[in-house]
Design a protein that fits this description.
Layout: H1 2-49, H2 56-59, H3 73-83, H4 94-124, E1 142-149, E2 155-165, E3 172-182, E4 193-198, E5 206-215
Parallel strand pairs: 3-5
Antiparallel strand pairs: 1-2, 1-4, 2-3, 4-5
Length: about 220
Amino acid sequence: MAEEEKQEQETTDEQAPEEEAAADATVPEEQAEEPAADADEAAEEELEGAPAEEPAAEAAEPTEEEPEEVLSPKQLRKRERSRASGPAGPQRSAEERATERAERRSVAAKSRRRHRASRRRRRGEPGTGTSPAPREPGPRKVRQGTVVSTGGDKTITVEIAVVRRHPTYEKVVRHTSKLRAHDEGNEARQGDVVRVVECRPISRTKRWRLLDVVERAPR
């Protein structure tokens, strides 16, 4: 029995240093985990207490579009010259620039005169379109009436009566008109029913010519 107790004490003495070393090794790991957990909790508290950041798109206010600047022709030419790429020209005096400007203007004036002269010449020339259609005279008007006067030489006055129904009131309306006709042989007498046809102007008032006598007036 005594020997067994001695062996147990020896084994416990040998295991004691090993258990102490293992305990010493585990303690730092637990201590290391505790500060990491504390740091995470502190970060979460800071995030909860901090105000929420607004998005940059909402914070930015819309800016109004600036109207385009209207430049004069002189300013536009100046801008084009400033943007031109290439070697710079030689320095010129004001007199040299004035003479070059006068030469350019004289050349432009000559070209304008040539263009206008050519337009004037073309304006007088006949067009090259389709040829005009041949003129075909239409049928001449013929009227029938009664001779009311034969006072002038080779001239008779014919009264033409027009009887037609009114388009709105449906009433028969009689309308008379008088015209002068040319009677070359003085054939018509007063009261005759004659037919006249239109012709070229013979005098200031005569635009008609006697065609034939339809009915003679009783004597």
